[in-house]
Structure formats: structure tokens, C-alpha cells
Write a structure and sequence with these properties.
The complex is a heterodimer of chains A (385) and B (140). With 385 residues, chain A is α/β, with parallel strands linked by helices. Chain A is built from eleven helices and eleven strands. Chain A is globular. Chain A starts with 5 loop residues before the first strand and ends with a strand. Helices cover 9% and strands 37% of the residues of chain B. Chain B is built from two helices and eight strands. The chains are: A alpha/beta (385), B mainly beta (140).
Chain lengths: 385, 140
Amino acid sequence: MKGASARLEGIGETPVGKLPGRTSIGLQAEAVRRALADAGLRKDEVGALYTLDPYAQPVVMHSMLLAEYLGISPTLAATIDVGGTVSPMTMILNGIDAIEKGRVEVVVCVFGENAATGRGPEVRGLPLQSLMGTEEFEDPFGALGMVISYALLARRYLDLYGLAPDVFAPVALTMRKHAQLNDNAQFRKPMSLGDYLSSPWVAEPLRRLDCCPVSDGAGAVVLASHARRSSNGHIPVSVLGFGSQVTHKIASQMPDVPELGMAKAAKKAYGEAGLGPSDIDLLTVHDAFTVSVLLSLEAMGFCDEGEGADFASSGAIELGEELPTNTHGGLLSQGHVGGMLHILEAVRQLRGEAGKRQVPGAEVAAIAGNGGVFSNCGVLLLGRE
Amino acid sequence: MSDKEVKIERGTEISAPFWRSVEKEAMELPYCADCERFFFYPRPFCPDCWSEEIRWRPVSGRGKIWSFSVVHFPFFRGEWEERLPYVVALIELENGVRFLSNVVDCPVEEIHIGLDVELVYGRLGDQLMPLFRPARDNQR
């Protein structure tokens, strides 16, 4: 994909946190408007709109509703739902394809929702007004939402390598440290190891501080053909490589830790880009739970299997160190907007526009996503031109 | 949604034989006559070879804990909230099927991956459920 004809030209991010009174579609629309302004493009230039309907309020044919709401008439529209951060990656892949085929010149990819304030007052855990599809074999055993599934994965991981739950601490602490450099983060209060260790169990081996919050917010990315590029003043960013792998959907069907799809996804992405782990200047990784970061670091070859915890506790994932990871604070501390903000942060870093959390000279960013319980793993590599 | 009392949906035509066998305390799982192996959850064909030669066969109910979590957060109201902390586990049955269930009749400190377990039946509301406890020869 080197020398791509489609580039990431605009990013737009709304406030993130608890935003009472805001609607999901309103948040998505705001992100789109901000991203188009950032790209220096007009709404009537949008040829394709790729989005995901809010999990908090599922909507059928959402992409058309959003187009109507925005007052645009795209040639192509689709709702894409393949899990955390992999959904926006897949929107971008579809967008590049449409541009390279000459079908459209400008593509908008967006996700956002009011998951924090838009849920019913008694809803606990994920706001699953939508169904996961296999409740029949999970709900009767008290297994609801994503935390328990990830707890089962985390326990398997710890047992495989003989580790204690405390190994997840450096991930939570680093995300919080980074969030303190992000004015648009839901959690910026400093977190100590004592805070982490005294955080209550949700589902062992996961404490509350191993789990990301639910958040209100939205993010959008604008892709444009080389011809349609405007003089917006930003350094253009393009896709260097991509890989993804679906292995299962629900926890009981997952492969064992070494066979999860992330390693295959990374291998494909590196192969497409002609790059390897040592070429990556920064990483954004879908960190709905701390364990996800360790699993991704290992599968992407930044360290050996079972050594993700040592890698994280060495400080390597902190800003200024070997592999700055989730410099925006990640889902764990910035907030959970479906992983869209992981893409935005990578673009911001590659443009050199990350301000006080800038990774100096960042040229290649890796983004790792996983939907379900590592059910669909995706790796997207972005580079500056 | 999590604000509900637990309501068990046992409705589909495909899975009815499973829940009926549980009610009879003689759990059966779908078995592919062509692959000659069990699979779960129920489908009208084998997910490996797509054969439609599916039989329902009884299982020994013996297995090992593949992973587990001690749940402390009240995701569900009602009976589950009263049971906190409870144990959700993935059980690998000796026929190769991995099954999500609960571990009962065992102090949580004694639960570990690899523990031999056996199938028991317990009530949740008015429903009978397939649950697991440490295998008898494991008990002190």
C-alpha cells in the first residue's frame, strides 16, 4: 500500500466523558463536521460515509440516518460492526478501496455514542440493548457483557505464564499518566500503585482499574484522493499495511492464548508494509482491559510471549521510552469511543500535532484492535509522508 | 439488559433437546455422526464438516477447568446478586467440548485451572442448570 492514492486528511474529536443531554447521532455529526473542517473539505464533497450505529441505542440502517442528519448525499454508505478499533480500521479499508477504484474521492469514517449518559439508569456493565447473539448459553450462568469474558481470557493468560494479577498494574498506571497530558480525557486524576491495588475486583483477575469506563464522545476520520487533497496545512498520513483475523465470537469458543488472531493480523500488516516491530515509533492499542495491551505487545512482536508484563513494567510503553503506547490515555483513561480515538491519536502523532505528548519524529504508528474477546484482531500501520 | 431478573431463554427449536436433557438431569450434547465428535453450542449442522447428520448423545460430565473468574460485581439483579461472589468457568469436557458454566460446592480459593470437575444439576429459580463441582476423587 506504499505511495497510497488515498490519505487520511482530516480528524475530528468531540469532548469525551460524561456529556449529559448529548445524543449519539449528534456526537457523530459533530465529529464529522470537525473532521471535514480539519481536512479543509466541504460536506457536498463527501462520496462515502462509513459508520457504526451506537451500541447504546442500536439503529437499523444507521449510515443513511446519519447522512440525512448531516444533510449529505453520499454515493456509498455502510454500517460496519466488527469490534473495537477494528471497526474504524475496516471503515478506512473500505474507504481506500472506494477511492482507489475511482468510485469516490472523499470518505468519512465515524463512530461515537452517549454510552455513559444515554443508558437506562439501572443498566450495569455494557449497555447491551443490542444482543450478543449467544445469551442463551451465557446469561443463565451469570456471564454478562464483556468483563467476565476478558476475565476468563486474563486468567488463562496469567496461568499460562505463571503470573499474578498485579502484572496488569503498569498498563493502568501508564494509561493514566498519559491521560494527564490529554485535556480531553475522562480520567486525569493521578493513579498510584496503591490506588490500583486497592481497586475492587469486578471479575477476578480484573479489578475496576483494569476495565475502561463507558464514555460519551465521538471521533471521525476523513480520507481523500490525492487529487482532492486541499491545502489544509497538515502533513498527510497514509495506510502502510493492514491485517485482521477472525477466530471466534464468544469466550467459550476462543482459541488458547498463543493462537489468538493478533499475531496473524500483525504478520499480515507488517508483510504488506514491508516493516517489522522495530520500525514502529508508537503504538495505539485497544485497551478495553489491561490484559489486552500485554497480549497485543506480545503478539505484535514487541516482546516475547509471556513477557508483555516485563516489557510494560520496564517503562517501555511510556512516552519518551522505546514504544510509547496510547499516548492519549487509551480507552482506560481517555475513555471508550469504540477505538476511533486510537486512530485519531496515531494521525495526530504522525502529523507532529500531539503537543505536550508528541513522540519526537514519529514516522510510523501501529494501531492494534480487537473486537469481542480477541474474536477479531486487526493491525493497521500508518505512516507520514 | 442487565437490570432484569435473570430470564432464561430456552426457546429455540435447535437447542430445545439440550435444555430438555438438562431438565431430565441427563445432559446431552450435539454430536456429528460424520466427524464422530461432539460440538457446542447447538446448530443444525456440524460447524467443522457441515454435515447435517447430528445426533444428541449423553456426556460423561467429567472435565477440567480451562479458565475461571470469581465474579464480584452485580451485573445481574435478583438471585445472582445474592450469590456474589460466584464463579463463572470455562469447562473443557473430556469429549473436547468447551462449555461455560458455574463451579459450585467448592471454596473459591481451591479453584484452579486444570482442576478435575464433574457435572451436577442445580436450580436457578425454577430452572435446572448444568453446573460443575470438583470431581469426587479430588475432594478431601
